[in-house]
Every structure is written in structure tokens, then in C-alpha cells.
Amino acid sequence: MPRVLVLLALLLAACDAGPLGPAALADVPLTPGVSRVEVEGDDGPVRFTLSVPDGLTAGARVPLVVALHWSGDVTPYYGETYLRALAAPGLAGLGAIVVAPDRPGREWDSPESVAVVRALTEAAVAAWPVDRRRVAVTGYSQGGFGTWSALAAAPDLFSAGIAMAAYPITDGGGRPVYVIHGTRDELYAAFDTERAVARLAAEGKPVVYAPAEGLTHTEPAAYVPALQDAARWLADEVWSLQRREVLVDERDGD
């Protein structure tokens, strides 16, 4: 589907009523470690695997990262394997709450799936001690496509994205995107991703391309070091910069 039509479909989906209410996660305990959670949505249960960092303190607000799993036949808590193998170790340095939902639709970039990602993220921000300026989305393969779609549909919600093993299918809503792709990927050619990222950069979009040397598509756990690099980029070059801009604006407003 052409990029314009994809973006239009996502924007229309974002305008619909969400499948989760803002209070859907109010009773979910933030127990340190990894846990499985099921909440009732408008269209049935919404399942996700939750990773909570140690040391949450009263009054402190932490980052939130929504992590979208790869493709496959989705069984309950399908996202847990992705979370444990790649997302949690790769993002550990952020001290973030990480949510890995099960894909509700056939693809992560479908309007149904994008709507759930947005609603789940909004509910997490409403219910948990989340710094709404530090909310990001990431994904691998099919989840990488979902990352591009979520950013395009909700640039007001996500500050940035990290897309792995997936070429751009939107412009990311103008948000910063760190793109990781294995140079030996046998499913999606790294050259196509590199070329698409270069095209977005030429259009002035804030994208970074980081080739993962020697990695294929079928070894996602090997992406952990690359995701750790991306997490440092997110903390040091996106969130820190945004924080400095807020402080400057506040100072100028005095």
C-alpha cells in the first residue's frame, strides 16, 4: 500500500474510540520483575507482558517503552519471549517500565493493532508513574513495522521510536527514529532499509541508521548490544535534549 494511504488509514484509526479506557490499568500492580497481565477491553481481553524496574520510589516518574514482538501465530503472552530475549536486556539501562502487548490484529501496522497500542500506552501513562515526555515505542521485524505505524498515528504520544529489522513504511510522524538492521538479513534486505532511511533523512526527518554487522533476521537475541546502543541514544540524544529545551522554554517564560 502506498505510504500516503497507510498514513491515512492510521490517522483514521487513531480518531476512533480506543479499545481500552483510561482507567483500564489502574489496578495493575507494578511489581518489580516480569509479569503477565490481562485486562478487559471493549473488544475482548488485552494481554501484555510487563517488565517493571527495581527501585521505583514514591513521586518519581520513569520512562515507558512499548515493545512490539515479531510475527508468528500469537498465543497468550506471545510477547514475553521477545521481551525476555531482546527488549528487556536491550532497554535495561533506561530504568523504564516496558510493556510487550500481544498483537490483536493480523499485523502490527493494521488499524486494529495500532488502536490497541495507542490505547494501552495512554492507559499506562494515565495509571502509572510515567514521565509522559519519555514514552517510546520499539519493535522487531513485524513489530518494527508497527513501530513506524504507531509513531505516525500518535506522534503526540510517543517521543521517539526504535525500529529493528524492518524498513520504513511511514515517516514516523516526524519523531526521532533509530533504525537497526542486520547486514545479512535474508528476509528484508538491509540495503532497502538503508535507502529508505536516507530518503527520509533527505526530507529532513530525524532518523538514524545503525547497521548490525553480520546479523541475520532469525537471530533477534543477537540484537541486544545494538538495542543497548539505541537506548543510550534515546536517553542522551532525545530525552536529554528535549528536557533541556523544556528548561529553556520555562526560563524564557519567567
TrEMBL record:
InterPro entries: AB_hydrolase_fold, Peptidase_S9_cat, Plant_Biomass_Hydrol_Est. Residues 120-165 form the Peptidase S9 prolyl oligopeptidase catalytic domain. GO terms for biological process: proteolysis. It comes from the Bacteria. Keywords: Hydrolase, Signal. Residues 1-26 form the signal peptide. Pfam families: Peptidase_S9. GO terms for molecular function: serine-type peptidase activity. The keyword Cytoplasm does not apply. SUPFAM superfamilies: alpha/beta-Hydrolases. PANTHER family: FERULOYL ESTERASE, UNNAMED PRODUCT-RELATED. This is Peptidase S9 prolyl oligopeptidase catalytic domain-containing protein. It comes from Rubrivirga marina.
